[in-house]
Write a structure and sequence with these properties.
The protein is α+β, with helices and mostly antiparallel strands and 500 residues long. Helix content is 24%, strand content 25%. Helix 2 runs parallel beside helix 12 and helix 3 packs across helix 8. The protein is globular, with a radius of gyration of 25 Å. The termini are far apart.
Length: 500
């Protein structure tokens, strides 16, 4: 593709002092307009069936359905909330693709540039023919020529590590899902523009769409990971999908070149042949093709930006699902029948029930007593743990209050935290776990037996909820941790603690 064939007009948004902004800026930052489902040809009854089918899975964290540019349904399973960004995992790749498309449209590089030309200082002394033939296009289509993905790539994210990895296949001939390749796209954009892609996209994508406070994890050299690490709100995901549905325009203004939208979302390579799998429908430039004529950006555990051009619809979903196909199947089986070609008769009763159900969504909390049935004998006793994978050092029950009857002094990762979980509800605060430091967290706890306390912590900007069960016996406590995703949990071996 000739870069000169692409054009992009960047919206000019000028702030005129703290109290004055342009109409374009107001339009971008305003929420998407809302509508009664039937007014946009969507059945409230079918939407309600989708929500009711999703709730028992305990997997979805949020859903937003947009039809004809208007939000017809939206909901967050508490403690997840509209204002909180969510970790997107590989849905980040579609934003990296957008940065590449914009950089190409500006003449920074081309689809057919060799990858090695951008990093001569990191190139092997004798590059293989396959490595020399690897192009930007091959990174975008996950056909760079690798047989295996670079191990532990997030901790080894660097052009040098990537270029040293074996390339046994001719680039462009072998599809292999490859997140390090997306990191390389991020590194190329940064090399050619002088900016990390999160900064590069700010005036070109995030500001025009009114996407607030994007954050993107970087490697030690300050390069955005590209293949993962972006956090955005559910509405931001929906706005991104709506931009692509409208062929790169927002509010009537071009933001992303339409030719890039067409190429990025078209089937560029084959990924399989199963008609029942949404991962066998082909791959574009960091976008998956989907069944039913759609395409999507998607990320681990079910982060979806699903675009359905034939229905003029966008579905944004965040979740914590181990079975990602299950979430898409739910969309096809329950949500797809909700869409109709014309406006539907008003159904106020169903619309009211849907609105009420969406407003009351919540993930389950431990069921039990707020007070220790065994009495206060364990209060003020510190239980210490030997070194363990979860990095938990000690725990101590503390006297509670009427507002917070269960309190724990928790030490992990070298940090001591005072936890005051809700009982029968989620209480928000901050906390840490083995993989997270000082992360927004909601917690809930209950005594489920005289010797058993169950604590559930939801890191509600991520897919993860961790359930910790304490079983006390004399001077000992047995601690079990489960990382929950949907109905499935991953349980670590028990950790034994002793009274200090």
């Amino acid at each position: 593709m000739n870069p000169a064939s692409l054009s992009v007009v960047l919206p000019l948004v000028v702030l005129l002092g703290a109290l004055c902004s342009s109409p374009a800026a107001n339009a971008a930052t305003a929420p998407l307009s809302r509508a009664i489902p039937e007014s946009e040809g969507v059945s409230s009854r079918a939407l309600l069936e989708f929500v009711e089918a999703a709730e028992p899975l305990h997997a979805l964290h949020s859903v937003m359905v947009v039809r004809h540019g208007r939000v017809v349904a939206e909901g967050w399973w508490g403690p997840y909330e509209a204002a909180a960004p969510h970790e997107l995992y590989s849905l980040s790749k579609s934003f990296t693709s957008t940065a590449v498309g914009l950089a190409i449209s500006e003449g920074r590089f081309s689809l057919d540039d060799e990858v090695l030309k951008f990093f001569p200082e990191d190139a092997p002394s004798d590059p293989s023919p396959n490595l020399r033939g690897m192009r930007v296009r091959d990174l975008l289509t996950m056909s760079a020529g690798h047989q295996e993905e670079l191990p532990d790539w997030i901790h080894n994210a660097s052009p040098g590590k990537f270029l040293a990895h074996a390339v046994p296949h001719k680039p462009g001939t072998h599809f292999k899902y490859n997140s390090p390749g997306t990191f390389m796209l991020s590194a190329i954009v940064q090399r050619q523009t002088g900016q990390p892609i999160v900064d590069y996209l700010q005036p070109r994508l995030f500001d025009p769409l009114g996407i607030p406070h994007p954050t993107w994890e970087t490697n030690s050299q300050g390069v955005c990971l590209g293949g993962t690490g972006l956090r955005l709100t559910t509405e931001s995901i929906a706005r991104f999908g709506q931009l692509y549905l409208r062929k790169g325009t927002w509010g009537g203004r071009p933001v992303v070149p339409a030719v890039w939208v067409d190429q990025a979302t078209s089937r560029q390579v084959s990924t399989g042949s199963s008609p029942a799998s949404d991962w066998d429908q082909g791959y574009g430039f960091q976008f998956w093709r989907s069944r039913h004529g759609g395409y999507r950006g998607d990320g681990a555990y079910g982060q979806y930006c699903l675009v359905l051009p034939e229905l003029d619809a966008v579905v944004a979903i965040t979740s914590g699902a181990r079975d990602m196909q299950q979430v898409l199947n739910l969309v096809w089986e329950k949500l797809l029948p909700a869409f109709h070609p014309r406006t539907l008769p008003s159904d106020r009763a169903a619309a009211g029930r849907l609105r009420q159900r969406l407003a009351g969504l919540v993930l389950p909390v431990p069921a039990g007593s707020p007070l220790n049935p065994a009495g206060p004998g364990r209060m003020g006793v510190r239980f210490a743990f030997a070194e363990n994978k979860e990095r938990i050092e000690s725990v101590m029950l503390q006297p509670g209050t009427a507002e917070a009857p269960i309190q724990l002094l928790w030490k992990a990762n070298g940090r001591e935290e005072s936890l005051r979980p809700g009982v029968g509800a989620w209480t928000k605060g901050r906390g840490s776990a083995a993989r997270y430091q000082e992360e927004p967290m909601a917690s809930s706890a209950a005594w489920t037996a005289p010797d058993t306390l169950v604590l559930r912590r939801c890191f509600y900007q991520t897919p993860f909820t961790i359930t910790t069960t304490f079983r006390f016996s004399g001077d000992r406590v047995e601690l079990k941790q489960e990382s929950e995703l949907g109905l499935v949990s991953s349980q670590e071996p028990p950790i034994l603690g002793r009274r200090e």
